[in-house]
Amino acid sequence: MPVVKVIELVGQSKIGWEDAVRNAVKAASKTVRNISGVEVLNWTATVDPNNGDLTEYRADVNVAFAVDGTD
Known about the structure:
Layout: E1 4-13, H1 17-28, E2 35-47, E3 54-66
Antiparallel strand pairs: 1-3, 2-3
């Protein structure tokens, strides 16, 4: 049975929250192998005070991956 490690990351996007999650997982996959899942913990955004538009989306996520050699 593999040992699974979980790391917390914050993804960012100017497009939307789902894109922020994708960006976090994609960035993690550059250095982390065996990613098996993601859990969204929190959604936040910055707001343009002049017009009320959302300008940057953030997603706090937990990314799970199997530790090498524990299969």
